Amino acid sequence: MTQHTAEGIRLNKFISDAGICSRREADKLIEQGRVLVNGKLPEVGARIKGKDKIQVDGKTLQWNQVAPVYLALNKPAGIETTTDLSQRDNIIRFVNYPERIFPIGRLDKDSEGLIFLTNDGDIVNKILRAGNKHEKEYIVTVDRSINEDFVQKMSSGVSILGVNTKKCFVEQLGANKFRIILTQGMNRQIRRMTETLGFEVQTLQRIRIMNITLAKLPLGQWRELTDEEIATLQSQVADSAKTEEGSVSKKKTSTSQTSSSQPARKKSPSNNRPPRKEGGTGKKSGFGANDAKGGRGQRGASKGPGVKKSGGKSSAGARGASRNAPAAKGGGRKRR
Fold first, then answer.
1. Cα 19 from Cα 21, distance rounded (Å)
2. DSSP string, 103-163
3. How many Cβ atoms from other residues are within 10 Å of residue 53's Cβ?
4. Which residue intervals make up region (Disordered) (predicted)?
5. How far apart, in Å, are the Cα atoms of 106 and each of 14, 29, 114, 115?
6. How do 47-48 and 9-10 pair as beta strands?
7. 108 a catalytic residue
8. Count of CB atoms within 10 A of residue 262's CB?
9. What would the pLDDT profile of 192-246 be if each residue is shown by its tens digit?
10. Nearest Cα to 48, choosing from 66, 32, 31, 30?
């Protein structure tokens, strides 16, 4: 819920709390003239109070916001991690959630695995900032056999996009398969690293983000995070920087950050190990991997199958009421 203070709150935070987008994206909306405060164009960094009327693209935002939403999706390959509904296979239409949400970070269209979606702009910023060093774990297969030299080079850092990647944990799992744990989020980082070493990625799956793992979540389905998972996640980002100043610039990364951690190849450090206990299953969609291409069941806007929910009651409490929203025409959820 948005809190009222004597000084008011920043406009971008209000828009983010409303579940429209992240704070950074909200600033872009303001710059593009798509936001009005009391009928006038505001400046980036403007503060607002409860009496102000805020509109985004002509839609008035309410001060009483909905409860925060946190989802974990096992994204199939072929789904674009974008909120742009003009993109045919966008993640928002695929999930078909009854409230406005957006993904935290990106996962390549050709990649699959764990990705979060939320309406909480604060946690988006904290997780995404490179300087906060939050772990993401992947299983990767490449087009030919790898060896100790490949593992050593990947873990020590590879020059891509004009900078050296941070040292990281890499473990060989098979003839052409390895596990890698990153705290960076450079564009197509793993694919670029392997290409630099003369290999080509065949499959790439993200299996963990911080304390949340895929566990038994089937491909193409999503679930709500449990209260326990959310509490742990919030505690891990409690001291994380939310602003750009909290991040390490790409230029500085190449010189100062590559020596900040030690490579580990055969044994994972304790802080790189996935948690042993998994959260509950929450509610899942009925969307299978084979439905990835045709499953664009946005509310009243698409044809083809949408996401159906199954499973027991969620522990999310207040969020459960929103699950009874009418299903999208031509697919989507059934009323419970």
1. 6
2. ESS---TT-EEEEEEES-HHHHHHHH-GGG---EEEEEEESS---HHHHHHHHH--EETTE
3. 12
4. 237-336
5. 23, 20, 10, 8
6. antiparallel
7. yes
8. 9
9. 999 999 999 999 999 999 999 998 899 999 999 998 998 898 888 877 655 433 3
10. 30
* Amino acid at position 191, single letter: R
As a whole number of angstroms, the distance between CA 302 and CA 295 comes to 9
C-alpha 169/C-alpha 175 separation (Å) is 18
- 49-91 pLDDT, tens digit each: 878 899 999 999 877 656 788 999 999 999 999 988 888 899 9
User: Where do the DSSP E strands lie in the chain?
Assistant: 9-10, 35-37, 47-48, 54-56, 59-60, 70-75, 102-103, 112-118, 136-142, 159-160, 163-164, 169-174, 177-182, 201-209, 212-213, 222-224, 284-285, 309-310
pTM (global) more than 0.85 = no
CA-nearest of 329, 117, 85 to 221 is 117
**Residue 315 scores a pLDDT above 60:** no
Contact criterion met (CB below 8 Å) for 73 and 283: no
Cα dist. 39→2, 16, 52, 288 in Å? 21, 20, 10, 45
* Measured distance CA(283)–CA(321) in Å, rounded: 13
> Closest Cα partner for 186 from 254, 112, 85?
254
Q: Are 19 and 67 in contact (CB under 8 A)?
A: no
Domains (ranges, CATH) in the chain?
9-60 (3.10.290.10), 67-336 (3.30.2350.10)
